[in-house]
């Protein structure tokens, strides 16, 4: 009789049996809103509801920046 090399068939170590995390990686932000760079302070700002009709014309992140831009 030749020794029956009995190796455990179920070597479940290779499988993804580790952490129960099923992370899907990056989180997608809800409702990816458009952004612009403020022409006055140079910071990015995000679309706001109040700009929904004038978004194309919006240049500044706030009224403050807008008025400051006019001053200068
Ligand atoms: Zn600004």
Automatic annotation (TrEMBL):
Residues 1-30 are annotated as: Disordered. InterPro entries: UCP037205 (IPR017136). It comes from the Bacteria. It holds the Pfam family DUF2256. This is DUF2256 domain-containing protein. It comes from Methylobacterium cerastii.
